[in-house]
Write a structure and sequence with these properties.
The protein is α+β, with helices and mostly antiparallel strands. Helices cover 27% and strands 29% of the residues. The chain folds into two domains: 3-118, D-amino Acid Aminotransferase, Chain A, domain 1 (2-Layer Sandwich); 132-284, D-amino Acid Aminotransferase, subunit A, domain 2 (D-amino Acid Aminotransferase, Chain A, domain 2). 38% of the residues are buried. The protein binds N-(5'-phosphopyridoxyl)-D-alanine.
Length: 285
């Protein structure tokens, strides 16, 4: 059984217990992170911890752990779980109250939980072997604070389930004006005439760490032109390539949107370049 961390102690998963009065359970009142780790090496660790701390500050959740403390905790967790291909899940909820009340107390200690789950081997940059994602589109019905990586994910879960129920991999979302926001658990990029385009960060988009790394890598290690600007639904449907990014998927090629074939119906040439560059450079950020 996997070893997890809960409130200062490492223990077998089956021994980790949290009160039903925990505000994470009652209200989804918490922040989380998922960090990929291969053979003990994390991708984008500092950026993930920075986003975690920004999310905690946004929700006024006090958590005493510093970036150094998180590093030590995560390293120990990785070692205790065999240091293979692991997703590291970090979760900080506001803590356990004596009652269920919307207003939050200022003085309860945060609940800090971390565990590892197995993930696939490092994604390859290989057109024939790469997964080919089929997605649907929908109007984004989540809340107005999607930049906060809150554990309250029901809006995302419902959109994702819409896709899963149809045997699709992801649901990509458009705001009321018809502009792309993101996927239910991914950021979205399109390619048109050699240009890589992704929506700019806003309160409707999670500032994905893979998105951030990919933009930096493309700008610093290639001559590929990158634009952060609004993207209409028509541009997605007519794109030469569509990509999804997330910590576990890295850069993933979409081959079908709402039943329409994208490009040549397989991962495209810029995807190959982008994923190759990502693979080579991802540990340097
Ligand atoms: N999901 N947008 C949303 C809504 C997400 O939930 C995620 C990640 C991303 C990509 O972010 P990153 O590149 O930092 O993983 C974008 C995680 C993996 C999850 O909920 O499991």
């Amino acid at each position: 059984m996997s070893v997890v961390y809960l409130n200062g102690q490492f223990m077998p998963l089956g021994e980790a217990k949290i009160s039903p009065m925990d505000r994470g359970f009652l209200f989804g009142d918490g922040i989380y992170e998922v960090i990929p780790s291969y053979a003990g090496l994390c991708v984008g660790f500092a950026a993930h911890i920075q986003r975690l701390q920004q999310g905690l500050a946004a929700l006024e959740i006090r958590c005493a752990l510093t970036a150094q403390d998180w590093k030590a905790l995560v390293q120990q967790l990785i070692q205790q779980n065999g240091a293979g291909n692991l997703g590291i899940y970090l979760h900080v909820s506001r803590g356990t109250d004596s009652k269920r009340a919307h207003a939050y107390p200022q003085d309860i200690p945060a609940t800090i939980f971390a565990y590892c789950f197995d993930i696939a081997a490092e994604p390859e940059a290989d057109i024939d072997k790469a997964p080919r994602y089929k997605v649907m589109t929908a109007t984004d019905l989540r809340w107005q604070r999607c930049h906060i990586k809150s554990t309250a994910l029901l809006g995302n879960v419902m959109h994702h389930q819409q896709a899963a129920a149809l045997g699709l991999n992801e649901c990509i979302l458009f705001d009321e004006q018809g502009f792309l926001t993101e996927g239910s658990s991914t950021n979205v990029f399109i390619v048109k005439k050699g240009l890589v385009i992704t929506p700019p960060l806003s309160s409707q988009i999670l500032p994905g760490i893979t998105r951030q790394l990919l933009l930096s890598i493309l700008r610093q290690h290639s001559t590929i032109q990158v634009e952060e600007r609004s993207v209409s639904k028509n541009e997605v449907l007519c794109a030469d390539e569509v990509w999804l990014t997330s910590s576990s998927k890295e850069v993933a090629a979409v081959v079908e949107v709402d039943g329409l074939i994208i490009g040549a119906g397989k991962p495209g040439p810029l995807w190959l370049k982008a994923q190759s560059l990502f693979k080579i450079n991802k540990y340097n950020y």
